[in-house]
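Hey, I'm writing a tutorial for new members on how sequence and structure tokens pair up, and I'd like a real worked example in the thread rather than a made-up one. If someone can provide the structure for the chain below, I'll link this post from the tutorial.
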Amino acid sequence: MKKTILLTLILLVTTAVYAEEIKFDFNKHLFAKSQPKFKCDGRQHCSQMRSCAEAKFFIDNCPNTKMDGDNDGKLCEKRCGH
């Protein structure tokens, strides 16, 4: 009886530890994919952007951007076709 209880306890602990490892790996993978592919690096102007998505990221997340020269709320009008 003691062996059965001991084996059950070991099995439960092992399962719990393994489940935490799986959860950690899953979360690491999940959060790695959700990280933005752009980062603020000092660029400010539309001519420095490679895409409209990049320009949108910069204007939403980075300081001192200068991508709406006429202040009409449309960023990078020539590049993004607004």
